[in-house]
Amino acid sequence: MSALANPAPVLEKPIDDAIRRADDVILQQRNISADEKAELTTRIKQLLKQRNAVLVAHYYTSADLQILADETGGFVSDSLDMARFGTEHPAQTLVVAGVRFMGETAKILNPEKRIFMPDLNAECSLDIGCPADEFNAFCDQHPDRTVVVYANTSAEVKARADWVVTSGIALKVIQHLKDQGKKIIWAPDKHLGNYVQQQTGADMLLWQGSCVIHDAFKASALKKLMQQHPDAAVLVHPESPEDVIALADVVGSTTGLIKAVATMPNQTFIVATDNGIFHKMKLAAPDKTLLEAPNEGVGATCISCAHCPWMEMNGLKNLAQALENETNEILIEENIRKKAYIPIKRLMDFAATQT
Ligand code: 13P
After folding, report:
1. CATH fit for domain 2-9+126-211+337-353, picks 3.40.718.10, 3.40.50.10800, 3.50.40.10, 1.10.20.10
2. Gap between the Cα atoms of 309 and 320, Å rounded
3. Of all protein residues, whose CA lies closest to atom 2 belonging to ligand 1?
4. pTM over 0.85
C-alpha cells in the first residue's frame, strides 16, 4: 500500500531560479581555450598534491573532471560509492565534484576532513523540493512511521531521518524494513519511491518530489525509438517516471547501468539517465552504440536536455579556484551534522553487510 504525501510541494519557482543561476556559471566555465584547459589541468594536479587532496566526482560531471579524478588517484562513481570512497581514503581534504548533497554527505561522515566543492550552488531539484521545515511538519503528522530519505536531500532533512538511502541500495533497505513490519515515510523522489513500493509491497507514504532531468523522459517517444532499434536494451534510472521504468530491461543506479552496458550481450543501448554517464559507458564498452532516451526537450521546451545543469556547474576553472584559495568549503552546523550522521552511518553499515 502506498499513499501520497499531502500537501505536495510545489516549488517550480525556486527550481527555475536555481537553473538560471546554474546557466550563468556554466557559460563562464565553458568559455575556456584549449591552452587554458591544459594549464588549469596541470595546476589542479599540482594543487591536489600540495593540499594532500583527492578528487571525488560523480558520473554526471563533465568528462574533463572524470578524467582528472581518474588520473590523480581520485574516484568517479555513484553517490553511495562516493561516500564510501571519501570515508575510506586517507586524504584529509576531499574535493567533491557533484551536487551539494554529495559534498554534505562527505562532511557528515568525515567531520575531521575538509571538503571543498567547485561551486556550492550546485543544487538538486529533489533537495530544493523538500524543505526541512515542511518535511519536519509532515513527519510530525505520522510519528508511527520510519523516515527514509534519499541521499539527494539537505543535511537538515537527513537529520530528521531514520535511514538515508541511495538508488543503489533503496530496494534492499526498504525490503529490510518491510520484513521488520515497519511503515515508511519516503522522501523526496516520488518515482523512485513508487518503484520501490511496487517492488517490495511496503507501506510507504511518498513525498512528491522529482528530479528535473529524469522526470522529463517520455514513454511515448521512447516506444518509438525502441521500434527503430528493436534489439536495443533499455536502461533506466529509477528516478524516471513509472511508464518509462515499465519499458526498461534494466532499472538501476548509475553504477548498475554502466555494468549493464559492459556485461549485456546487446550491441545497442537506450539510456534513460543523465548523459554525463556516457563517458564511463563508452570506456566500459567502446564498441557499443549508446542512444539517449528521448525527453520532453525539443528546442525551447528543453529544460534539462538529459543533463543536470547543477552537475555541469562543476568546471576546471572553479575547481582550480576552490583548491587555490581554499574556498567553497562545506561547513555544517555540528548539531545537525551529528543527527544526520546517524541515518547515513546506518546506511553505510547496512551496505557493508550486502554482497
Ligand atoms: P546514483 O546514486 O545512482 O549515482 O544517483 C545519484 C543521482 O543524483 C541521480 O540523479
Report:
1. 3.40.50.10800
2. 20
3. 79
4. yes
